[in-house]
Amino acid sequence: MQKPGLPKGTRDFGPVQMARRNFILNTIKDTFQLFGYQQIETPAMENLSTLTGKYGDEGDQLLFKILNSGDYLKKVDSNDLEAGSQATLNKVSEKGLRYDLTVPFARFVVMNRNDLTFPFKRFQIQPVWRADRPQKGRYREFYQCDADVVGTDSLVCEAEIILMIRRVFAKLGLKDFDIKVNNRKILTGISEAIGEAGKEGPLCVAIDKLDKIGWEKVQEELAERGFASQSVEKLAPLVNLKADLKGKISFLKEFLAQSETGLKGVAEFEEMLQILSQMGENLEHVDFDIMLARGLSYYTGAIFEVKVNGVSIGSVSGGGRYDNLTGVFGLPDVSGVGFSFGVDRLYDVLEELDLFPEESLASTKILLIHFDQKGFEYGLKVLSQLRKEGIKAEIYPDLAKVKKQFDFASKKGIPFVGICGDQEIESDTLALKNIESGNQESISIEEVVSLLK
Amino acid sequence: MQKPGLPKGTRDFGPVQMARRNFILNTIKDTFQLFGYQQIETPAMENLSTLTGKYGDEGDQLLFKILNSGDYLKKVDSNDLEAGSQATLNKVSEKGLRYDLTVPFARFVVMNRNDLTFPFKRFQIQPVWRADRPQKGRYREFYQCDADVVGTDSLVCEAEIILMIRRVFAKLGLKDFDIKVNNRKILTGISEAIGEAGKEGPLCVAIDKLDKIGWEKVQEELAERGFASQSVEKLAPLVNLKADLKGKISFLKEFLAQSETGLKGVAEFEEMLQILSQMGENLEHVDFDIMLARGLSYYTGAIFEVKVNGVSIGSVSGGGRYDNLTGVFGLPDVSGVGFSFGVDRLYDVLEELDLFPEESLASTKILLIHFDQKGFEYGLKVLSQLRKEGIKAEIYPDLAKVKKQFDFASKKGIPFVGICGDQEIESDTLALKNIESGNQESISIEEVVSLLK
User: Where does the Aminoacyl-transfer RNA synthetases class-II family profile domain start and stop, copy by copy (chains A, B) (predicted)?
Assistant: First the structure.
């Protein structure tokens, strides 16, 4: 008899994990909807022509490909065997599993552009698949949770991203976190200002290591990457800058005085702050991080990254503004801004901080327990009454020892049992026992209802 | 530039479809949870060793197989090319997409048998994939929505299935439907009683056509299938039986008097009715259909099928009791009972009957509309106030013509707009307009809140 197993890098989610994941996902969903985002779903499978070339060579390697149905080898001959797996791919497979939610969303926008109402605010919560080497915290199937607005340049969207992140974190009980914000145009401006126009990519890669390796080593790396020593010198005041948000802004206005793009970036940042202020919102958790450079090649305006402090996992959310989501599918000039939550990472953070609410674990509120057929029948009647009041209730379905029934309740995390003994049957009550405290009292069904509601 | 498309047989779900699907799925989920069922999820990919051989030869053909990562051709030589696609399959693929939720659930139970609390009530709502020929109403990716209890023989589970189906249909607004119930043991008993023991399979296939082709043609078919003419004769009183539920039961008790299995089936059916009665429930929508034979090879006890009357699509839900869910994975004697809702079919039924509630279409309740920068800024402030009260609200994010903003609201199905004109700004009010009725009045923000809440 075969012993069943799971494919490498995939997971089952049992009842407790699902309840906890739903707690996270429902919090995020509620927030997206409060801000007017609408849910869509796209198929797990996409044509390989939609997916390939969008994630770089490495990404193409990591796509899961679906074998063509039927006689999939019919186009393959011995020459193909010699040509090798990659050259032969298009003869045996034409579909793949989605690798992220961004490319399918771009495809969706292009295919439905005549029916959508722009600005279009969509969210999407679905699994994606990557044939990565599985390791701790990295899976081959995992959920992504994206929200994007396309079809507007308004910085209201950026301000709202900050508000949505704050709301989700507040509802999850997370208190110590930073929403790092920057603007790609500021990074472009900085490379212009130090005389290395167009090199913001390597600049940020090097600067990103500042915390780990220190300024001296970063200088060495910049030199190795071909930055002139006088450029690196010009960078020093920026690296050493100790200032609050307003101090950073005035510093940058001077530092970027010669860079039109750089000043535009600062202006966008200021306008976003202005909108927050017009909304009556403060700047709690907002951290202007001049060197933040997440997904540089892609973003053209604001850049976001959220870090939870004091936990082993850092970044749990991020995003930014882009200018050309759908160009690759023939629809140019679709600007948008989007962000996403890392569900697996949030799960680990909440677990590490012990922030999952107890009630998310136990959906059933009460188990009805019985000693004999008479109690069982009484329990059936009560069960029906409780459920009609919307109370999640169960009865132990077999005649079984009371200990077994109690064990069932406690293993399933059911907080209350309702004991159907002879006395209770006579007086039309339940002996309601709180499993955690051990307290027990015989009360009427109406009282049980109002207590559990 | 490539024009993007979708793989054959797959679909995108846009905002309206998603809102409607969520209306159905949330109704089902709520009901499952009210009855103590817990959600699990399993990965989209399973090892082919888990999937193959479970769905018959045709099912194996319809599995979507995943190409091995990397150099997938490395084990294939020219001999394999000659041997053909099927013989070579295990050299190029070891994983497939799940074909249903039952086999993954069986695998889950076996792998987690030491950690689960039995009786284990689980529900699972996830897509499945089948390489079927796409046609109207049949897709290559579709959601299944299953609930099963394993580890108990209690007929409380059967009674609760009826109650769950009734609750879901009531919440969906469906009124005219039949829950057809039968028991496999009754079918076994009938074939014994007519002297054709073990032939309940072909018997039911033929009888199933009664409505379409009439009793005479069915008799011919039974003869062709090797039923003796005296057996067919014995069947006649059953086929012609016009009786209510109680009448059917007493008829069967006589008809099946010589079949122990048959009488057991009747007794199980009666016990289920007894439990419903002890719960204080009536038998509305319950139809005892002696010839119902859904998924015969699989079920061993109760059999369910739900038909909505007066619509083109009939069966929207079904299930039954089985004796050996996990035997194929080495864990014998796991009895259970389960049922599922056909989400795509329910969607079509609700659409045909125009039963989708309006509010499921529009998540955003109010759009704030402005004439100029001053109104925009006032709108930002009000927006924040509304959202803090939990009201799903949006502002048109750009300075745009009022008509464009109104169009946006109406296309997105937003029921109210709040106009931020000079008068409103001065008096700290909103001109609240009901898009459908056209009514408009200027009221305070507090009044807007209490009206929209």
Answer: 1-397
Q: Across the interface, do B38 and A19 touch by the CB < 8 Å criterion?
A: yes
Amino acid at B57: D
Query: What ipTM does this complex have?
Result: 0.93
Q: Residue for token digits 């490495």?
A: A58
Cβ distance B65 to A66 less than 8 Å, yes or no, reads yes
Q: What pLDDT, on a 0 to 100 scale, did the predictor assign at position B295?
A: 66
* Residue B391 neighbours by CB under 8 Å, 6+ apart: A34, B365, B366, B449, B452, B453
Q: Selecting from 3.40.50.150, 3.30.200.20, 3.30.70.1060, 3.40.50.800, what CATH number does the domain B363-452 have? A: 3.40.50.800
Q: What is the pLDDT of residue B324?
A: 86
Fold match flag (A15-63+99-352 vs A363-452) = no
- With a cut of 50, list the residues of chain B below it in pLDDT: none
pLDDT tens, residue by residue, A23-70: 999 999 999 999 999 999 999 999 999 999 998 888 999 999 999 998
Model confidence at A361, pLDDT cuts 50, 70, 90, reads low
SS3 letters across chain B: CCCCCCCCCCCCECHHHHHHHHHHHHHHHHHHHHCCCEECECCCEEEHHHHCCCCHHHHHHHCCEEECCCCCCCCCCHHHHHHCHHHHHHHHEEEEECCCCHHHHHHHHHHCCCCCCCCEEEEEEEEEECCCCCECCECCEEEEEEEEEECCCCCHHHHHHHHHHHHHHHHHCCCCEEEEEEEHHHHHHHHHHCCCCCCHHHHHHHHCCHHHHHHHHHHHHHHHCCCCHHHHHHHHHHHCCCCCHHHHHHHHHHHCCCCHHHHHHHHHHHHHHHHHHHCCCCCCCEEECCCCCCCCCCCCCEEEEEEECCCCCCEEEEEEEECCCCHHHCCCCCCEEEEEECHHHHHHHHHHCCCCCHHHCCCCCEEEEECCHHHHHHHHHHHHHHHHCCCCEEECCCCCCHHHHHHHHHHCCCCEEEEECHHHHHHCEEEEEECCCCCEEEEEHHHHHHHHC
**Interface contact A392-B42, CB threshold 8 A:** no
User: What are the tokens at A428?
Assistant: 């039309």
The one-character DSSP state at A63 is P
Residues 392-451 of B with CB under 8 A from A: 392-395, 397-398, 408, 411-412
Q: A15-63+99-352, superfamily in CATH?
A: Bira Bifunctional Protein; Domain 2 (3.30.930.10)
Give the integer Cα–Cα distance in Å for A117 and A194.
43
pLDDT of residue B114: 94
* pLDDT interval class at A16 (50, 70, 90): very high
pLDDT at A105: 97
Please tell me which of the candidates A11, A395, A397 has its beta carbon nearest to residue B43: A11
Pull the structure tokens for residue B191. 């074939």
More confident residue, B113 or A362: B113
CB contact under 8 Å between B11 and A43, yes or no, is yes
B258 touches chain A (CB under 8 A): no
Q: Which among B77, B84, B363 has the least Cβ separation from residue A73?
A: B84
| Domain segments of chain B as ranges | 15-63+99-352, 363-452
Are residues B35 and A387, on separate chains, in Cβ contact within 8 Å? yes
Cβ-in-10-Å burial (0-12, 13-18, 19+) of B284 comes to exposed
Distance from CA of B34 to the nearest CA of A (A): 4
Cα separation of A116 and B407, whole Å?
A: 12
Instruction: Please give the pLDDT value at position B134.
Output: 85
**Reported confidence tier of residue A2, pLDDT bands at 50, 70, 90:** low
Predicted pLDDT at B445? 97
Share the mean pLDDT of chain A: 93
